[in-house]
Design goal:
The complex is a heterodimer of chains A (about 110) and B (about 110).
Chain A: E1 4-7, E2 10-13, E3 19-25, E4 31-37, E5 43-50, E6 53-57, E7 64-70, E8 73-78, E9 87-94, E10 104-105, E11 109-113
Parallel strand pairs in A: 2-11
Antiparallel strand pairs in A: 1-3, 3-8, 4-5, 4-9, 5-6, 7-8, 9-10, 9-11
Chain B: E1 4-6, E2 10-14, E3 19-25, E4 32-38, E5 45-51, E6 56-58, E7 62-67, E8 72-77, E9 86-93, E10 101-102, E11 106-111
Parallel strand pairs in B: 2-11
Antiparallel strand pairs in B: 1-3, 3-8, 4-5, 4-9, 6-7, 7-8, 9-10, 9-11
Chain lengths: ~110, ~110
């Protein structure tokens, strides 16, 4: 069973479009995250939700809007896509944000903007 | 600001030898450290972690060493195998924070 699953795995679209990435975890964790990994493999946190409430928002443009319908899902919607949005986006989950437990990652969504 | 860095962006090791990947962190309040392995096309996978009340922790073929005095940790992989080829990340956090700071990654390649 896949613990953290993201869809789609690949997303190719044109500049200016709006797209969504979905994430689901079946680990029973309370906290979920979105990370962006650039071409140099640098991983940077974008958002974190704990029990459907936003707890981290790391100076991400407001074109990016996360939504958590329940604690097992955290989706990422991106408006007006720009070339600089091309990256791999990873979803992750952990038991809670402060318990010093490792995060579990999905396999990523590779977003390419034409 | 906080940073977690790796000393070498790439490391090439002979198959069967031991690998050592080093990492430095800047925040002395960091009390929890994790090593992740990322294979091509996959997400980061947890390898081993260590809390600040320890200076060494061992897993299967892996050992993490923590030196809080100089804010340094290392990952040692014994008898490196082709399947160990990946990018390795160290990460650090502290109890009152809700986020983990990742280092920039070291790419480990194995020579036959």
């Amino acid at each position: 069973d896949t613990a953290v699953s993201q869809t789609p795995k690949y997303l190719v679209t044109q500049m200016g479009n709006d797209k969504s990435i979905k994430c689901e975890q079946n680990l029973g964790h309370d906290t979920m995250y979105w990370y962006k990994q650039d071409s140099k493999k640098f991983l940077k946190i974008m958002f974190s939700y704990n029990n459907k409430e936003l707890i981290i928002n790391e100076t991400v443009p407001n074109r990016f809007s996360p939504k958590s319908p329940d604690k097992a899902h955290l989706n990422l919607h991106i408006n007006s896509l720009e070339l600089g949005d091309s990256a791999v986006y990873f979803c992750a989950s952990s038991q809670d944000p402060n318990s010093n437990q490792p995060q579990h990652f999905g396999d990523g969504t590779r977003l390419s903007i034409l | 600001g906080e940073s977690v860095g790796l000393h070498l962006p790439t490391l090439s090791v002979q198959e069967g030898d031991n690998s050592i990947i080093n990492c430095a962190y800047s925040n002395s309040a960091s009390d929890y450290f994790i090593w992740y392995k990322q294979e091509s096309g996959k997400g980061p996978q947890f390898i081993i972690d260590i809390r600040s009340n320890m200076d060494k922790r061992q897993g299967q073929r892996v050992t993490v060493l923590l030196n809080k005095t100089v804010k340094h940790l290392s990952l040692q992989i014994a008898a490196t195998q082709p399947g160990d080829s990946a990018v390795y990340f160290c990460a650090a956090t502290y109890s009152s924070a809700s986020k983990i700071i990742f280092g920039s990654g070291t790419r480990l390649s194995i020579r036959p």
